[in-house]
Amino acid sequence: MQRFQHYIDGRFEDAAQTFPSIDPATGESWAEMPEAREAEVERAVEAAHQALRQGEWPALTATARGKLLYRLADLVAQNAGRLAELETRDTGKIIRETSAQIAYVADYYRYYAGLADKIEGSYLAIDKPDMDVWLRREPVGVVAAVVPWNSQLFLAAVKIGPALAAGCTLVIKASEDGPAPLLEFARLVQEAGFPAGVVNIITGFGATCGAALTRHPKVAHIAFTGGPQTARNVVRNSAENLASTSLELGGKSPFIVFADADLESAANAQVAGIFAATGQSCVAGSRLIVESSVKGRFLSILKEKSEAVKIGAPLDMTTEVGPLCTARQRDLIEEVVGRSVAAGAMLVTGGKSPDGVGFYYPPTILDCSAVKSPSVERELFGPVLSVLSFEDEAEALRLANDTPFGLASGLFTRDLTRAHRMMKRIHAGVVWVNTYRAVSPIAPFGGYGQSGHGREGGLAAALDFTRTKTVWLRTSDDPIPDPFVMR
Ligand code: NAD
Questions:
Q1: How confident is the model at residue 486 (pLDDT cuts 50, 70, 90)?
Q2: How many A from CA of 430 to the centre of ligand 1?
Q3: Homologous superfamily in CATH for domain 2-249+447-472
Q4: What is the CB-side half-sphere exposure of residue 110 using CA atoms within 13 A?
Q5: Which residues does the entry assign to the active site, renumbered to this chain (predicted)?
Q6: Which residues pair with 28 in a beta bridge?
Q7: H-helix or E-strand spanning residue 7
Q8: Which of 74, 153, 294, 480 has the highest CB neighbour number within 10 Å of its CB?
Q9: Whether 248 is catalytic
Q10: Stated pTM of the model
């Protein structure tokens, strides 16, 4: 059985307690993970705090920080295959996706490496004579980064990259489900040469490790990705330390198809939008909103493509849909699909877990256009598509925005003016027009409403890890006049 360790203050170490990690393809435990509780969290935060305040890290120029990030990027690229295999083993996410995604993660580090010495303060044209006033941008402080189990290396990179570019230090809490890739990534942090304590990586359970970390008095900012209910707990925890928060939460994203769209292309994008990563994607286009006149045709194309998907072992390069990460997730999906069918939703395809080992669930399409189905409201985080239909643009928009979430959306039409009208009115942080599931380090990403706040990616994300200091410098040698008048 493979054993993993925490990375605290530049050293690899065991925790006082461990827990098993389960291989989702077999349901068997395959590795032993260290479990951080209060004591481990305390040491990790203290290490990050010390590294922020003294020693090498705060003395480095921004350019030197950038060089370390470039080194990390190269190491991620060189080790992408190995990390991808670990992520696939520990989370069930297919190797085709993890290998491509991790290779691209290197570009996120490169982007923030280049940005490190371009984070600028400003000089103010102040309304007083003999006074120079400027704003410095300083690191916000110790960052607690909490990530969910899907795409952990990616979700950590969009926090680590900008936080280090800004000069912060971090404690990263890997999810208790599938923490292996992040714990292994710590070896690359060490090899890149970051000073001890700048990046600390631990794992443990939410109620113990996550709570202790997010309420710790020395944490200044919490960068959280996960579900909305957990986010509420995290925000409550932040009432203790008054840390700022950025929240990347879930979604129930609309995928709108107008009759004039290229249906073949839209169907491919819909398959990517809901079945890639076995639907375990925050941006899953889980509500298909299709114009009534093409609904039958579109569903038959979609059904054919869904039934052709290759389900199999996640480490097999030809597999397209692997298992879900946990049995808990599969059981939840099964339960909600069952209730939806009982409520009158029509099963177009899928809907039943196969016999045998592993946490598998097939690509599933539910036609919910004539009923109120639980599958339409709840984020399922699995390969389940709920179908709704509309008669005109106004109804499409109403259905699209009929959710408390607002993370992503897809819009398929050849009508450019309509695309512009709709794009402005869709209540979501990302609108993809005639494409879906595209991301880049250059493009900010984040949600509206219950999908959270704050943006990851782009320049704005690095600024979120800074705070401004206003410096006033009097340039006159004359004595200060009347001390009882505010100047
Ligand atoms: P989750 O909310 O259950 O857990 C996320 C993390 O929070 C885990 O590391 C967990 O241990 C930790 N946690 C749990 N309770 C905590 C507490 N009280 N205090 C501090 N930390 C705590 O999420 P999950 O089930 O692992 O992942 C699925 C969710 O993540 C979905 O809702 C999905 O949409 C969302 N997600 C969002 C994005 C995005 O960028 N918007 C990306 C991926 C996943």
A1: confident
A2: 20
A3: Aldehyde Dehydrogenase; Chain A, domain 1 (3.40.605.10)
A4: 12
A5: 248
A6: 23
A7: strand 6-8
A8: 153
A9: yes
A10: 0.96
